[in-house]
């Protein structure tokens, strides 16, 4: 059981502080913040999420720049506490619509009311927004989302995709709409975070997809929902050999290494027809998490050429090729590459007619940064970089530079080929036809090419 | 809920409190609700709004749940500082606990349990009894937790009133939430009890396994953790349990997955069929790997656990090494753990892949990570004989990049590789020697010198190389000096020519006459004696064959490992320390022999008999300070000071347990020790004990400062927050420079009526102390009214009677102090007189003694005191009459403490 729960701002201010057991001194938030801030003398290294100081165990997660912390004196399961902290953040987000310092402060009474129902004497009672609704009486004061980062993977849809109703993800699940009735809608998001490591010769060393089917329901009356996935979905490797090459077109079989489900999901017919049925609780929650190491076609190929051109100089050529169909567009692409620490000057040369591209040399950590607003499928982009050094090279510049890493978001595209075939909502009346949003997005987790 | 200590000393706006008071008493409901919200807002940012206690409590009788919850929140926070007023709330609580609305019933018991005031607790029992049998599951599940709360306040009461039995009945409840909370409450009570309370029989086991399927995710964790203490009778039962638990591995909640893994691992110990075990290992692997797709914080916990699991059962993840490859954007704490596991899983089959990764990591930016990667290569070389050569060639490649810290780290591990495979890889020495000049870290230098000395006969210019180090001999750190000494002796024994002979003289001279380091000097004298008496036996000693070192990557001692495995999923498994090394409240239950595994193999998972002999120093170092914490829990008057625990958690990635030293050395000055207000554990080594005292008609703050930190502290200053009596320092704090491990005491003269805090009187005094080296420390003290009783308080009998009569009856307040025994009237009077309470008269009423005394606090406010008691019989009635009856609670508190001590 936990003793205290608190939320600190980035500056270390107490935004929320709730003591459940009174066995730890009140100054714990300050003690914690000092320790985390100066974990190593240089203040650079990040503190681990679990540590013990003077007999008090501090367990914390970072959520949208806020520190969610729990303390305890007991040998309890830290995974429980870490999950709890994430869940508390999610519940608060469900209630307030937006999770940030401002919304927490404006709604502190509601937040304390929630905390009292979520945790009693340090024991988790419930973190289901749905269940909590019957015990919570305060109304949220909705604050403007502003430009603050929103919480959760659904935030991806906020940017660069006009087809999505952007306000939906910052809407409280309990607040009454000002203009009359609540809009009946449900969001199902298939979010895939991909990690790929290319060897210096371009081979794929490791590749992995961490996927989530995320749901957020604003349907009244909690109707039952059926979600059908690919018929040929297979779980567990080893059952059959992996000869099918499943590209982005989704033709081949989808083979999951492992998956798990939200507790509201019924799997009765899953083995037969790959259909999940559930009564979605209010709030945002993952219906299913899955993991794939089956080979897939990486959305980008990265080509790096490093040449020592003359004394004290070298040239780097970065070439990015989009391997996905031209109907799809990736956005917010950033390519980074550490350069030798003794690099003194960097000159960039973009391809002629380049639009929406920016280059930068970060002097402090000797890193080049190339950002592109968007990349259309099947296109290719090149950047030439001239480096100047104060001394002659030892001839192993490739060992002192790189690897090239890349971040991006690709809406309406998922490399695994996992699909929501249909989303069926149990009808209440003939006219009942809520909005259904099924969205796909792919995001780079660790996308790295060695040189 | 205070928080915001920065605002500790900020003054509340003038008029805010009276304004709130008015609003709280408004006739309009909405206005009252808003006012309570404002009060809560002030409370959460640390303002003292305790003076509004009565007004807030008056809002408690409402049908509005939102408002009621707010008032309850306020009560939980302030009841302790206003115990006498808190009693006002009792009636409403009791009424609420019988409200038709189940939410209100639950809210009432939940809140009562949180108020740790004895008088309230007494009234809790009946409502709790009812609520445990309530029709509504929400009320029952709240009541279940409330039993644990009550046990924490008053364990005896729980046992006497039969709450334990009621709680056990709830295990069979038809609502899974209730079952889960009952299990959690029982587990906690068992944890703090010395006798068996919650024992899981095969009957409860099957009930709980059934409940498991219907519980919320959190309830599943409570139940799985409780069940992990169950010992299956045989392999068949173990298999049955595992079968019921395995579906939990598919849960989206990582805590459920890890608790299920723990259960399965424990039961696997009993399962004899190798097929079943192999199958289970296969089933556990994917969920364990999936944990690494969660947030980095959870990954860290998972990795620390996996580290233990693969030490015991390497096959589980033998084929999954790729998932432990570091991602570019992993936080450093995740990367470090992944490296550790990669070393453990490295095998002849995958070593090429692993080396490729390590080589890549060794050119990354983060220095600590790079060093660890280089070391990892060395450890693989030591672990895998057939791969050693490949590892060495990678190390040589890295050395050629000439990044200083990579080279030094490589040389350190190569020295170990030489020790592991003597006479195998010496051909690379020449390459190593090229980097000689760049070495500037002691460990790397010492390693290089060791290599030169060890292989002096194969290095042509060994004498030149060593000589280059000798010039700076006096300035080198001891580690390097010791290696230089030994290496020079080795060189001389191997090449007894003129050069080395001169060198040995220089070194021996430097290491004996011109050093203060006793270790170095002793070693040098031993060599000197050896060399001068018998060079041949010197050879036998110095050049003796060294024992071959082995791989240290499975570094945990097997009994410790078993103990940690029994604690999988808990903090213990993250720290890699047994629970009693860091938990202040430990289980003291004695395990009996028959609880051991029936097959008697290995001693198994039972708690502690093994680790005492194990390689972990913490238990011995820490058990002494904890001893006092094991005493039965009494409701502490001030927030419990944390036990003086040394920083046990050297969370460095190595297992470094050696640095633990108990720091608990209480200084005992003459007289009763002063109460500790700022424990050293809170004050970064600074401990402050203090108490208000009265000497010769003057109030002093008697303070003792103890510096347990490593640095001298000076420039002490003190400040007092507003308090009821306006107590403040009359002059500057006189504390001299405080050297480490010293203490100083001082008597700080105090004045009254400086900054008076508004509101009803209370005994709280908040103090801030600063010095030039540390942050500002805040602590609170309890003012005893006794120090204010002046020497002028003596009254004539007639004046006493007159004053008594002149005061209205409403100014008379009385209290019963049930636990106090008067054994001798004279002794009691003497004690009271010592605190300026002067005897007026006494009379006998039936068998009771009635004493009359007078006292006076500053500004001439008299206290007329009447004490009634029967000698030798517990129970004292204390009545006072005074123009300031609001001081009565403080007086009662003070006199009770005086007469009780």
UniProtKB/TrEMBL annotation, chain A:
Compartment annotation: Endomembrane system
Keywords for the protein's UniProt record, in alphabetical order: Membrane, Protein transport, Transport
Family: Belongs to the adaptor complexes medium subunit family.
Protein transport recorded as keyword: yes
GO CC, any one term: endomembrane system
GO biological process: intracellular protein transport
Domain MHD: 183-450
Protein name according to UniProt: AP-4 complex subunit mu
Database matches in PANTHER family: AP COMPLEX SUBUNIT MU (PTHR10529)
TrEMBL record, chain B:
Keyword annotations from UniProtKB, A to Z: Cytoplasmic vesicle, Golgi apparatus, Membrane, Protein transport, Transport
InterPro entries in the record: AP_beta (IPR026739), AP_complex_bsu_1_2_4 (IPR016342), ARM-like (IPR011989), ARM-type_fold (IPR016024), B-adaptin_app_sub_C (IPR015151), Clathrin/coatomer_adapt-like_N (IPR002553), Clathrin_a/b/g-adaptin_app_Ig (IPR008152), Clathrin_app_Ig-like_sf (IPR013041)
Signal peptide: none
One Pfam family in the UniProt entry: B2-adapt-app_C
Domain Beta-adaptin appendage C-terminal subdomain positions: 789-900
Subcellular location: Cytoplasmic vesicle, Clathrin-coated vesicle membrane; Golgi apparatus, trans-Golgi network
One cellular-component annotation, GO: Golgi apparatus
Clathrin adaptor alpha/beta/gamma-adaptin appendage Ig-like subdomain domain ranges (all copies): 666-780
Primary location recorded for the protein, binned into one broad class: membrane
GO terms (BP aspect): protein transport
Region of interest called Disordered, as start-end residue ranges on this chain: 593-651
Biased composition annotated in UniProt, kind: Low complexity: 606-632
Biased composition (Pro residues): 633-645
Membrane topology of the entry: Peripheral membrane protein
Its biological purpose: Subunit of clathrin-associated adaptor protein complex that plays a role in protein sorting in the late-Golgi/trans-Golgi network (TGN) and/or endosomes. The AP complexes mediate both the recruitment of clathrin to membranes and the recognition of sorting signals within the cytosolic tails of transmembrane cargo molecules.
Subunit architecture: Adaptor protein complexes are heterotetramers composed of two large adaptins (beta-type subunit and alpha-type or delta-type or epsilon-type or gamma-type subunit), a medium adaptin (mu-type subunit) and a small adaptin (sigma-type subunit).
Family to which the UniProt record says this protein belongs: Belongs to the adaptor complexes large subunit family.
Protein name, UniProt field: Beta-adaptin-like protein
Originating organism: Abeliophyllum distichum
Lineage, opening ranks: Eukaryota, Viridiplantae, Streptophyta, Embryophyta, Tracheophyta
């Amino acid at each position: 059981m936990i003793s205290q729960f608190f939320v600190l701002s980035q500056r270390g201010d107490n935004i929320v502080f709730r003591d459940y057991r009174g066995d730890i001194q009140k100054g714990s938030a300050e003690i914690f913040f000092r320790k985390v801030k100066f974990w190593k003398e240089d203040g650079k290294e990040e503190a681990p999420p679990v540590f013990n100081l003077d007999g008090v165990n501090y367990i914390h997660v970072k959520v949208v720049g806020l520190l969610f912390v729990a303390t305890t004196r007991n040998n309890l399961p830290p995974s429980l506490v870490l999950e709890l902290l994430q869940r508390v953040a999610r519940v608060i987000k469900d209630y307030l619509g937006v999770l940030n310092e401002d919304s927490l402060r404006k709604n502190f009474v509601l937040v304390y009311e929630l905390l009292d129902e979520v945790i009693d004497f340090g024991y988790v009672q419930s973190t289901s927004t749905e269940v909590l609704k019957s015990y919570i009486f305060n109304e949220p004061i909705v604050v403007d989302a502003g430009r603050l980062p929103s919480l959760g993977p659904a935030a991806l849809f906020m940017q660069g995709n006009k087809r999505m109703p952007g306000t939906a993800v910052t809407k409280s699940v309990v607040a009454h709409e000002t203009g009359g009735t609540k809009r009946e809608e449900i969001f199902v998001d298939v979010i895939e975070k991909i990690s790929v490591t290319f060897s210096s010769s371009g081979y794929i060393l490791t590749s992995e997809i961490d996927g989530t089917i995320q749901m957020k329901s604003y349907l009244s009356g909690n109707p039952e929902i059926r979600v059908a996935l690919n018929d040929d979905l297979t779980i567990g490797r080893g059952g059959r050999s992996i000869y099918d090459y499943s590209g982005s077109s989704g033709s081949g079989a989808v083979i999951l290494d492992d998956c798990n489900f939200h507790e509201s999901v019924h799997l009765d017919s899953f083995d037969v027809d790959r259909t999940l049925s559930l009564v979605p609780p209010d709030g945002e929650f993952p219906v299913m998490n899955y993991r794939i190491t089956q080979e897939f076609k990486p959305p980008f190929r990265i080509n790096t050429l490093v040449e020592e051109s003359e004394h004290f100089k070298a040239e780097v050529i970065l070439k990015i090729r989009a391997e996905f169909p031209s109907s799809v567009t990736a956005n917010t692409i950033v390519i980074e590459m550490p350069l030798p620490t003794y690099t003194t000057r960097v000159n960039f040369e973009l391809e002629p007619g380049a639009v929406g591209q920016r280059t930068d040399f970060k002097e402090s950590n000797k890193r080049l940064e190339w950002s592109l607003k968007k990349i259309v499928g099947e296109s290719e982009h090149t950047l030439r970089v001239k480096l100047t050094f104060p001394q002659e090279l030892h001839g192993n510049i490739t060992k002192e530079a790189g690897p090239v890493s890349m971040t991006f978001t690709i809406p309406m595209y998922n490399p695994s080929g996992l699909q929501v075939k249909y989303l069926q909502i149990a009808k209440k009346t003939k006219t009942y036809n809520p909005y259904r949003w099924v969205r796909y997005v792919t995001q780079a987790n660790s996308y790295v090419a060695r040189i | 809920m205070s928080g915001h200590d920065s605002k500790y000393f900020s003054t509340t706006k003038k008029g805010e409190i009276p304004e709130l008071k008015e609003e709280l008493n408004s006739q309009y409901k909405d206005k009252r609700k808003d006012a309570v919200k404002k009060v809560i807002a002030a409370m959460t940012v640390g303002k003292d709004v305790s003076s509004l206690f009565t007004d807030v409590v008056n809002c408690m009788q409402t049908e509005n749940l939102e408002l009621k919850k707010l008032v309850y929140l306020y009560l939980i926070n302030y009841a302790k500082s206003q115990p006498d007023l808190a009693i006002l709330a009792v009636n409403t609580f009791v009424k609420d606990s019988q409200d038709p609305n189940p939410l209100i019933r639950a809210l009432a018991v939940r809140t009562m349990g949180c108020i740790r005031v004895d008088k309230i607790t007494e009234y809790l029992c009946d409502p709790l009894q009812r609520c445990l049998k309530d029709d509504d599951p929400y009320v029952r599940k709240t009541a279940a937790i409330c039993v644990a709360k009550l046990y924490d306040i008053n364990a005896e009461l729980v046992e006497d009133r039969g709450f334990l039995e009621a709680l056990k009945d709830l295990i069979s409840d038809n609502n899974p939430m209730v079952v889960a909370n009952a299990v959690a409450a029982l587990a906690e009570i068992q944890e703090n009890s010395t006798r068996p309370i919650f024992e899981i029989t095969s009957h409860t086991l099957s009930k709980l396994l059934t409940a498991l399927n219907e519980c919320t995710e959190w309830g599943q964790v409570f139940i799985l953790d409780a069940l992990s203490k169950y010992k299956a009778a045989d392999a068949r039962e173990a298999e049955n349990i595992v079968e019921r638990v395995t579906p939990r591995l598919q849960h989206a909640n990582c805590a459920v997955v890890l608790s299920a893994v723990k259960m399965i691992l424990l039961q696997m110990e009993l399962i004899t069929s190798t097929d079943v075990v192999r199958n289970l290992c296969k089933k556990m692997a994917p969920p364990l790997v999936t944990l690494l797709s969660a947030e980095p914080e959870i990954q860290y916990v998972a990795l620390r656990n996996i580290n233990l699991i693969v030490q015991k059962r390497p096959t589980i993840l033998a084929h999954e090494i790729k998932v432990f490859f570091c991602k570019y954007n992993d936080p450093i704490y995740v990367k470090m753990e992944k490296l550790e596991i990669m070393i453990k899983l490295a095998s002849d089959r995958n070593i090429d892949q692993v080396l490729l990764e390590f080589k890549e990591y060794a050119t990354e930016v983060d220095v600590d990570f790079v060093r660890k990667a280089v070391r990892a290569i060395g450890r693989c070389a030591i672990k895998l004989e057939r791969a050693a050569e490949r590892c060495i060639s990678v190390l040589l490649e890295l050395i050629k990049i000439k990044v200083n810290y990579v080279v030094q780290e490589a040389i350190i591990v190569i020295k170990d590789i030489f020790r592991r495979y003597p006479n195998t890889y010496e051909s690379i020495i020449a390459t190593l020697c090229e980097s000689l000049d760049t070495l500037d870290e002691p460990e790397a230098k010492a390693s290089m010198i060791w290599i030169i000395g060890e292989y002096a006969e194969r290095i042509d210019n060994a004498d030149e190389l060593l000589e280059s180090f000798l010039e700076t001999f006096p300035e080198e750190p001891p580690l390097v000096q010791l290696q230089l000494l030994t290496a020079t002796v080795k060189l001389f024994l191997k090449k007894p020519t003129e050069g080395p002979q001169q060198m040995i003289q220089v070194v021996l001279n430097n290491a004996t006459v011109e050093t203060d380091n006793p270790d170095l000097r002793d070693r040098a004298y031993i060599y000197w004696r050896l060399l001068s008496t018998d060079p041949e036996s010197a050879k036998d000693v110095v050049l003796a064959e060294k024992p071959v070192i082995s791989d240290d990557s499975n570094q945990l001692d097997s009994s410790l490992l078993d103990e940690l495995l029994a604690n999988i999923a808990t903090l213990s498994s993250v720290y890699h320390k047994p629970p009693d090394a860091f938990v202040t409240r430990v289980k003291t239950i004695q395990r009996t022999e028959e609880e051991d595994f029936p097959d008697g193999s290995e001693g198994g998972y039972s708690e502690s008999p093994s680790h005492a002999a194990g390689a972990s120093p913490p238990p011995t170092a820490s058990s002494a300070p904890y001893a006092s914490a094991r005493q039965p829990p009494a409701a502490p008057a001030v927030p419990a000071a944390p036990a003086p625990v040394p920083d046990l958690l050297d969370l460095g990635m190595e297992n470094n347990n050696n640095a633990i030293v108990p720091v608990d050395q209480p200084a005992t000055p003459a007289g009763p020790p002063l109460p500790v207000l700022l424990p050293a554990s809170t004050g970064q080594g600074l401990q402050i004990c203090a108490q208000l005292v009265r000497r010769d008609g003057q109030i002093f703050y008697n303070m003792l400062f103890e510096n347990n930190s490593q640095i001298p502290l000076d420039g002490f200053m003190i400040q007092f927050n507003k308090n009821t009596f306006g107590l403040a320092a009359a002059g500057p704090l006189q504390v001299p420079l405080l050297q480490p491990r010293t203490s100083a005491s001082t008597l700080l003269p105090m004045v009254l009526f400086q900054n008076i805090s508004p509101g009803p009187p209370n005994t709280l005094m908040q103090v801030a102390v600063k010095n030039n080296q540390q942050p500002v420390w805040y602590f609170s003290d309890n003012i005893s009214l006794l120090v204010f009783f002046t020497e002028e308080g003596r009254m004539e009998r007639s004046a006493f009677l007159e004053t008594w009569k002149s005061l209205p009856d409403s100014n008379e307040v009385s209290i019963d102090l049930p636990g106090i025994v008067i054994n001798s009237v004279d002794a009691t009077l003497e004690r009271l007189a010592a605190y300026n309470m002067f005897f007026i008269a006494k009379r006998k009423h039936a068998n009771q003694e009635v004493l009359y005394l007078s006292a006076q606090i500053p500004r001439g406010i008299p206290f007329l005191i009447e004490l009634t008691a029967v000698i030798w019989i517990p129970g004292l009635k204390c009545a006072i009459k005074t123009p300031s009856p609001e001081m009565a609670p403080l007086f009662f508190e003070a006199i009770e403490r005086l007469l009780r001590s």
